[in-house]
Amino acid sequence: MNTLFKIKNLNMHYPIIDGLMGNIKGYIYALNDVNIEIYENEILGLVGESGSGKSTLGNCILKLITPTSGEILFNGENIINKSKKELKEFRKDAQLIFQNPYMSLNPRMKIYDTLKEPFIIQGIKNKKEIDERIKQIISLIGMKDEVLNRYPHEFSGGQRQRIAIARAIILNPKFLVADEPVSALDVSIQAQIVNLLISLKEHLNLTMLFISHNLSVIKYISDRIAVMYLGEIAEIADKEEFFKNHKHPYTQALLDAVPVISDKKREKTIIGDIPSPQNPPKGCKFHTRCPYVTEKCKNQHPELYEISPNHKVRCFLCENKCC
């Protein structure tokens, strides 16, 4: 497998500014020493509770925000220190699908102008080329040319998200970050959008980071799955291995929280809320909620242990690869 993105020792610490004096009085530790690879033509599912750092990681990968430290290698080149001109070229290859289809489209622009805008930004002026590409992409997302002369308010949420996806793929990128792209939609529409993304991935040879808190959607769309907790990767594995042989207590807790049709009640394996990223726990970040916590967990920070090929877990239970 060829690696498209390699994220190395990535940190994102937001300073907390004193409103009166302008001094830094602390930090929000959004990402902490994140190391992860994204392979060509795969969908990597990223799951975790709100506040775990999923969207921050996606924004860093696209260089929409500049991380505190670390490296983000795209085809072997570090994008963090790229110039504005170089980033403009990079963004032909890497695009974002936003969560809210009602907020991500300009209400004053017709759909044609919305889809034309990326070409203008990139300095592409050939009208025939632009028109052909727009019609091609509109067809690819399952809509007709007649929508191009209408405004966003004339469409449903699912239709708007299709248009937002069309805008993201209009320049034929290699990589997409899909940040909770179906969470604002009805369940019946969610399935249509997820199936569309899978179809586009195959048709356009896309690589995708799919961010969600919904494990059912993650299971359906992903090739590999990574779990984030308080700014760290807790576990990452191929999909089949993840669901059959997951090891981290937090992963188990997420799976236990998935609703099932059953008369049997399941015991809760996790208590409390995720700690504040402003004051994260010492030792293992999960130890304040873990049912298997030990003194070692409270005082020492676990590494991301490889327990089998393509399966890594950040837990002392797996320190000797025998968990």
How is this structure best summarized?
With about 325 residues, this protein is an alpha/beta fold. The protein has helices spanning about 55-60, 85-95, 110-120, 125-140, 155-170, 185-205, 215-220, 240-245, 250-255, 295-300; strands spanning about 5-15, 25-40, 45, 70-75, 75-80, 95, 175-180, 205-210, 225-230, 230-240, 305-310, 310-315.
Measured between the Cα atoms of the first and last residue, the distance is 27 Å
Shape assignment: globular
Strand order of the largest sheet: 6-7-8-3-9-10-12-11
Total beta-strand segments: 12
Number of helices in the DSSP assignment: 10
Largest sheet: 8 strands, mixed
**Range of strand content:** 15-25%
Mind explaining what this structure looks like?
The protein is globular, with a radius of gyration of 21 Å. Helix 6 links the parallel strand 7 and strand 8 (207-212). The protein contains ten helices and twelve strands. The strands form two sheets. The protein has an eight-stranded mixed beta sheet with strand order 6-7-8-3-9-10-12-11, with helices on both faces. The model has no long low-confidence stretch (mean pLDDT 92). The longest helix has 18 residues, at 187-204. The chain has a domain at 249-323. It has 323 residues and is an alpha/beta fold.
Which keywords apply here?
single chain; alpha/beta; 4-stranded antiparallel sheet; 10 helices; 24% strand
Please specify the SSE layout and strand pairing:
Elements: E1 3-17, E2 24-39, E3 43-47, H1 54-61, E4 69-74, E5 77-78, H2 84-93, E6 94-97, H3 111-121, H4 127-140, H5 157-169, E7 175-179, H6 187-204, E8 207-212, H7 215-221, E9 224-229, E10 232-238, H8 239-245, H9 249-256, H10 295-299, E11 305-308, E12 311-313
Parallel strand pairs: 3-8, 3-9, 6-7, 7-8
Antiparallel strand pairs: 1-2, 1-4, 4-5, 9-10, 10-12, 11-12
Helix pairs in contact: 5-6
